[in-house]
Amino acid sequence: MAIKNQYLQDVFAGLKKRNADQPEFLQAVEEVLESLEPVVEARPDIQKYGVIERIVEPERIIMFRVSWVDDEGKVQVNRGYRIQFNSAIGPYKGGLRLHPSVNLSILKFLGFEQIFKNSLTTLPIGGGKGGSDFDPKGKSDNEIMRFCQSFMTELEKHIGPDTDVPAGDIGVGSREIGFMYGQYKRLRNDFTGVLTGKAIGSGGSLGRTQATGYGLCYFTDEMLRQNGLDFNGKKVVISGSGNVAIYATQKATELGAKVIAVSDSNGYVVDENGIDYKTLQIIKEQKRDRISTYVNYVPTAKYFEDKDGSKGIWTVPCDIALPCATQNEINKESAEALVKNGVFAVAEGANMPSTPEAIAVFQNAGVLFGPAKAANAGGVATSALEMSQNSARLSWSFEEVDAKLKGIMVNIYKQASEAAERYDMKIAGKLNLVAGANIAGFEKVANAMIWQGVSY
To answer: At 429, is the secondary structure helix, strand, or coil?
Structure first.
């Protein structure tokens, strides 16, 4: 599929010229613009007010040096970023990623996706993203603390509870959020909800840790149910073994499925008896160990080394696939292997884990496909619920937060499916939820941008 509308073609051509070295960002924008063609053709005000030209350009890009001292006393230097992409419907909201792969292209793609994902939650939050090429792996707690303090010393100038509220992402868990929050509080001398993912005793929300994985399963369950299916008795393969994968494994199991494989960057484990999420928690959250050690706890499991990341795991036959590792982990070849082995539903727990070619394979084969900006919105939705609790000085129970999360995820499916129906977006007889999610998320933001005036 290619962009056919002349206005969208012209906007994308200009964007490619200015961002030729940013493939991930261009991939994300092209997918959205393809989906928006019927909206642009039905609404001349989109072009009149230059909405597309504006929405593909970040409102602000902040890039800065992060200097810190390692345990040997040597000065180390990393690069920090915050992409404040769009604040039409609320303060910027999006995670901070600490990983050697972090660069402007990846953060712009993530920030752009965040605009629509946040819009779909129906909560008043705009889109942003940030992070650094710092690698927390192998670093001591003191080194991570010194990095986080240096990072926040610059970042705090640009964020606030009504301006920009970062959260965690890859490489940023409770430990890192704590170090950053402590530094922010020291510098600002106030206790506000400026970061989400905080510890429970420091303004954090119950259910936040589980939210993205649980939300992925709630969305998938609704997608299945609306097509006469469910999780019960189904075999599920989940890539990754971090926060999202662990709690997706738990929730899918609770919904009656059997998760038979999980992975990390070195390989994957398969157990036809079902993966135990509590063992995953011990390995990844407590011991911070490799997934290969799973077989030491569960002798019936088999470990397969896979230096190509998660590619091998997609050869494991399953009914439902939940990619929860990283961007572009499922290519055309992997998608074809999944389809050949009988997969009937795929929902994305990571950000943009399927290439455009892989998505086409799934959709043309009639596989139910839940795109990331809809299926993995549970994390940011619960972050927004944490913001609400902080603003009201309240704390909700786990059950209250979980019930709100489930309601939000069911509503996200409803918005995406209704938008796909409204614009008659179907492939192989199935609703095109990629287009539906893009359209539903876009229209809310576009209306706000038009209302606020071109000077915005």
So the answer is: coil
